[in-house]
Amino acid sequence: MQVLLVEDDASYVALLAAEFEGSAIALHHADSLALGRRKLHERGFDAIILDLGLPDSSGVETVERMHDAAGGIPIVVLTSSGDEELSGLSMQHGAQDHLLKSDADANVLIRSLRHACERASFRRSLREGETRFRALVENSYDAITLLNERGRVIYDSRSVVRVMGYTPEERLGQSVTKSLHADDIPQIAERFAYCLDHPDEALRVEYRFLHKDGSWRWGEAVGVNRLADPAVHAVVVNHRDVTDRKVVETALRASEEQLRQAHKMEAVGRLAGGVAHDFNNVLTAIYGYTDLLLNQFPEGDRRRSDVQEIRRAAERAAGLTRQLLAFSRKQIMQPRVVDLNEIIGSIRTLLERLIGDEIGLEIESDPGLVRVTADAGQIEQVLMNLAANARDAMPDGGRLRIVMRNEQVMAMTIERAGLVSGTYAVVEVTDTGTGMPPHIRDHIFEPFYTTKELGKGTGLGLATVYGIVKQTGGGIFVESEEGQGTTFIVCLPQASDEGPTSSL
Ligand SMILES: Nc1ncnc2c1ncn2[C@@H]1O[C@H](COP(=O)(O)OP(=O)(O)OP(=O)(O)O)[C@@H](O)[C@H]1O
Ligand SMILES: [Mg+2]
User: Fold this and answer.
1) Mean pLDDT, consecutive 10-residue segments, the chain of 504 residues?
2) Which residues surround ligand 2, an ion (CB under 5 A)?
3) Minimum-distance ligand to the CA of 449?
4) Residue 132 and residue 270 in one domain
5) Distance between CA 423 and CA 443 in Å, rounded?
6) Residues 343 and 482 in one domain
7) Reduced to 3 states, what is the DSSP secondary structure of residue 152?
8) How far is CA 388 from CA 28, 421, 431, 469, in A?
9) C-alpha Rg value of the chain to the nearest Å
10) Which residue puts its alpha carbon closest to atom 22 of ligand 1?
11) Among 63, 67, 6, which Cα is nearest to 31's?
């Protein structure tokens, strides 16, 4: 053990040197504080024995100044006078032990030095552990935030700057909901309440947050309630930016869905187009022969009505074929910049006739609605199909509400999957009908999917609507619950150019 003895009393130095002769202690001597402090730089010492009455310093100040220079090397103070107060003071100022010269023989000193070293090394490892831990937290990829039970930030790791743009100082004391998207706050509040009730259970949440640079991002957080742990006393939250992952996921899901739908439409279209033509020829033959037959029966013949039934059936079949052809043919679009308020207003009477007297129609237009580039005829078809479905879902009457409004769509949102960011004109068609359970809702846009009895529906209505909306660059979404009615939400992108403007 290398020990530095700072002592100006030469006889005491000689005495100690003699006492330590042959022991594990190698003594190095300095006769002033200044020299002692200098010597600290010459080699590594394990401990310091310090006299308080030195030529260049005395009393507790000596401990203080030595301690400043010692960098954690333990100090054992040796004095000639037994002064309790001074002993307490020197311990307060960094000494590990305080001994009286008259009491301190070699054994006592060696024991004291050893204890001092052990304590110092324990402290050092504690400090190292803490430093390592701090470095881990500060340099972690995730941001680590501690929240109090009211959801306020009481600590942020440095990495929060990278994740959110704000410094820990800026966020200190703020509510955790401050930069969250308003739509996500209820969910987060509910999860936080759950977290408070379930200590130690890890909870994962996803949410949108506003980065300091003004952009919306997706975040993912895992929170654990450690409020009851006295060493932590906080809800510990690890959070990170998962925007890239989210964008890829959403785009992938949307394009898969689109591809699936496009494949189906194409296959069905080709099939329908091929069959419909030949089928029409067959129908022409049926018409022709029923007309011939009709001419052969005199007025009043009972068989005439049978033949008329055959003709009516053939007419229904022809109607179906026409629908199939309309669906299969790539409908030629005549897109113009149009105002949806006007298009929908213009078919109001038509819609009313379609849905009948038992159903009340409400149209709420929006004078500030952005214009869209679309084929007016197609938009009418969309509305008529949606209204027909609504009517069928309200056999006992009800209300049909059509609301128009603008919506700022943010790309990568689940509710508006497949849409790019921008302003959209939205038409919401809501009925008070039967609604749909999820297993039906998942299939309604598929061609030929119908829940209606044979002859009542072809199942092409919504497939056609879907095709038109997609062709126009928009999206259609449905919200429905069994017994709660249904809302179809049609989003069409704002026209990008000024182009030719037309009401219809
Ligand atoms: N407003 C609605 N309320 C409840 N269910 C609906 C609604 N709109 C559509 N559906 C369901 O979606 C299915 C598919 O609708 P779609 O318009 O494609 O075909 P359809 O109405 O059955 O037949 P078509 O429109 O070709 O005559 C319907 O059969 C029905 O089950
Ligand atoms: Mg329909």
Assistant:
1) 91 87 88 92 90 88 90 88 78 86 82 88 86 82 93 94 94 93 93 95 94 92 94 93 86 77 74 77 88 90 91 84 66 81 92 93 96 91 94 96 94 79 96 95 88 83 88 92 96 76 42
2) 389, 461
3) 1
4) no
5) 28
6) yes
7) strand
8) 102, 31, 11, 17
9) 43
10) 450
11) 6
Ligand 2 geometric centre to CA of 109 (Å):
99
What are the helix (H) ranges across 216-358? 243-296, 302-328, 340-346, 348-355
Residues with CB under 6 A from ligand 1: 385, 389-390, 393, 431, 433-434, 436, 440, 444, 449-452, 457-463, 486
The residue whose CA is least distant from atom 6 of ligand 1 is 389
What pLDDT, on the 0 to 100 scale, is given for residue 404? 97
The range of the structural domain enclosing residue 17 comes to 2-137
* Span from the CA of 327 to the centroid of ligand 2 (angstroms): 13
Count structural domains, the chain: 4
What single-letter amino acid sits at 221?
A
User: Rounded to whole angstroms, how far apart are CA atoms 322 and 325?
Assistant: 5
Ligand 1: centre distance to CA 317 (Å): 20
Asked if residue 347 and residue 307 are part of one domain, the reply reads no
Is there a contact between 482 and 438 (Cβ–Cβ < 8 Å)? Answer: no
Asked if residue 253 and residue 231 are part of one domain, the reply reads no
Q: What is the pLDDT of residue 219?
A: 95
What's the CA gap between 58 and 388, in Å, rounded? Answer: 101
Strand partners of residue 147: 153, 235
Secondary structure (3-state) at 386: helix
DSSP sequence for 87-98: HHHHHHTT-SEE
Ligand having the closest approach to the CA of 388? 2
Which residue's CA is the closest to the ligand 1 atom numbered 31? 451
Q: What pLDDT sits at residue 504?
A: 40
Domain containing 236 — which CATH number? 3.30.450.20
Residue 103 backbone dihedrals phi, psi, to 5 degrees: -90, -20
- Structural domain ending residue among the three candidates 98, 120, 137: 137
Q: What is the CATH number of the domain that holds 422?
A: 3.30.565.10
* Tokens found for residue 80: 């000639």
End of a domain among 221, 241, 261?
Answer: 241
